[in-house]
Amino acid sequence: MVGIVTYRNAGIIAVEPSPWAEVQPFNVSLDALAAVPIIIFGMQCHAQVITVFNELEERPRLVKNLFPSGLFRLRGSDEEEDGAQDAVVEGVADGTGAETESEAGPRQSGKSRKLRGMRRVVMAAIGLTAAGYSAIGLTGYLAFPHSAQSNILNNFSRRDGLMQLCRALVGLMKVVSYPINHHPARTCTQDVVAALTGHRPDSAAFNFAHAAGFYLATLAVALAVSDLGQVFKVVGGTNGAFLILGLPGALLMKYASDKALASRIPLVVEQPLLVARGEAPPPRPYRLLTSKLWWAGLGLVGLCVGVLALTIVSIVYPMQPGGE
User: Fold this and answer.
1) Per the confidence metrics, is the pTM higher than 0.90?
2) How far is Cα 12 from Cα 144, in angstroms, rounded to an integer?
3) Is the alpha carbon torsion for 126, 128, 130, 133 positive or negative?
């Protein structure tokens, strides 16, 4: 789909005498803020991360060799850690060596193979997504500098066979992804009901009723809304902002608060003998007002609230991205 749209955009650019003449690198305008919720929607993939991680094999090798050695390395070397771990396992297996406590310690405290593999999967997925967004965004801007619609497929004729194929592929993709999106929605509903009533519904009747209600609700939205960009804006400004900004910020603030509370516990309670002998210094108090984590979390939560307010304002008072 990315290739089809980029190909059609490139065809329009090729016939333009000076396609770069209308390019404006920066648009300093309040109207440009209308695109922020859509951008957040485009980068929203966090809800599927846990599902992908659960399905990932224990020793992922699929995308290990896609990146040069040392690139994106955070702590230590994946190859060296994997090699050392394999050597220990082989030594134990053939009787030539055994895993000592000192050898097991760093391995248990470091990143697991599965977590490092998930890191590579995320980097590969974000890289491919960024490449696709960049290709469509750049060629689309050059082809339609003043008339690009929120759904770029609407810029092309319905008589275009390739674009009709692209529309069919988009529909197929949504049909396939529908159950993937419904599953976490049903799980969240079950969690809410369990928290309110103390009983978690998991019967066939509940599953059928929830699936039917989910389908009817999405069908009603599809029939009532004709502009797909408005849907992207609402989802990005609410769910996307919460997952990308609000939830991480709240977790940072919670972690900083717990750390500050734990620092107030006297060390005598945990290590009375060491304190009595004077072998352990008193803990340094952790203060929220000087905590970078707490302020970072507060900033993320503030951004989430700001994006939500911007989404509501841009829907009530429609703005066109780019000031058009």
Assistant:
1) no
2) 9
3) negative
Q: Looking up tokens 């992908």, which residue turns up?
A: 52
**Chain segment 58-76, per-residue pLDDT in tens:** 776 665 655 555 554 544 4
What are the contacts of 105-113 at 24+ separation with CB within 8 A? Answer: 107/81, 110/75, 110/76, 110/81, 111/75, 111/81, 113/58, 113/59, 113/60, 113/82, 113/85
CA pair distance 190, 181, nearest whole angstrom: 15
Nearest CA-CA partner of 258 in 221, 307, 232, 293: 293
Distance, in Å, from the CA atom of 265 to the CA atom of 92, rounded to the nearest integer, reads 44
d(CA 238, CA 186): 19
What values do phi and psi take at 281, rounded to 5?
A: -70, 155
The two three-digit tokens of residue 96, written as one number: 């030539």
Distance CA 66, CA 122 (A): 12
Cβ neighbourhood burial of 148 (10 Å; 0-12, 13-18, 19+): middle
pLDDT at 146 over 60: yes
Amino acid at 25: P
3-state secondary structure of 247: helix
Q: Which two tokens stand for residue 125?
A: 């997925």
Q: CA-CA distance, 193 to 42, in Å (whole number)?
A: 31
- Percent of the chain scoring above 70 in pLDDT: 75
- Residue showing tokens 């391995």: 107
Query: Where does 95-227 have alpha helices with state H?
Result: 101-109, 113-143, 161-197, 204-224
Distances in Å between the Cα of 134 and the Cα atoms of 6, 35, 130, 140 are: 10, 15, 6, 10
Q: Which residue type does 315 have?
A: I
The residues near 308 (Cβ < 8 Å, ≥ 6 apart) are 237, 238, 241
Per residue in 242-258, pLDDT tens?
A: 988 999 999 999 999 98
